[in-house]
Amino acid sequence: MSTPSATERVGERRKPLRLVLFMPLAAFIGLAAVFVWGLGRDPSQIPSQLVGKPVPGFTLPPVQGRTLGFSSTDLKGEVSLVNVFASWCVACRDEHPLLMELKENGIVPVHGINYKDRPEDAARWLGALGDPYTRTGADTDGRVAIDWGVYGVPETFIVDGDGTVVYKQIGPITEAALRETILPLVERLQAE
């Protein structure tokens, strides 16, 4: 049996070195593929585990200065929107005029869950901007929002007359979302 030459021994040592040098390139290609896949997705279209299921049971006291609290039993009998908001939320301020329009036009009842807000801040905010909500519950510790699967505020849910969640809007309601998705779905559900 012959002994490998020096050139053959060096070649054998380079094989593991090539593999080690290739690993970062393979990792980079894998990460790039994940990022490219993610770029084509709409972040507001995160699937909700609650869609197609009954609203979670809850009872919330009214926001300071309001007389009506909000509970899961209020979501039976008619199609409605549930909007999760907070006074400290900039995007909530952006969507607020659209919620006021919904109230003024009487298209669909809008109920509010005030998320992790100081009572006086929520009352001041609704007093200054107007109150678009039929019922508004104070979720000061955020537990009800967790049951609803809220990622952050604002989020809006469409609930059918049976109390089943049929749609979840992540982020602020825009005129386009209202016109293209929310109102057509509300009208279809109201007609059923």
TrEMBL record:
Can you list the GO cellular component terms from the UniProt entry? outer membrane-bounded periplasmic space
Q: Where is the Thioredoxin domain?
A: 49-191
UniProt key word Calcium: no
Chief location of this protein? other
List the Gene Ontology MF annotations in alphabetical order.
disulfide oxidoreductase activity
For this entry, list what GO says about its biological process: cytochrome complex assembly
State where the protein is found: Cell envelope
Q: Which UniProt keywords apply?
A: Cytochrome c-type biogenesis, Disulfide bond, Membrane, Redox-active center, Transmembrane, Transmembrane helix
Q: Pfam families this protein is in?
A: Redoxin
Q: Which residues cross the membrane?
A: 19-40
Concerning its family, UniProt says: Belongs to the thioredoxin family. DsbE subfamily.
Spell out the protein name for this chain: DsbE family thiol:disulfide interchange protein
**Source organism of the structure:** Jiella pacifica
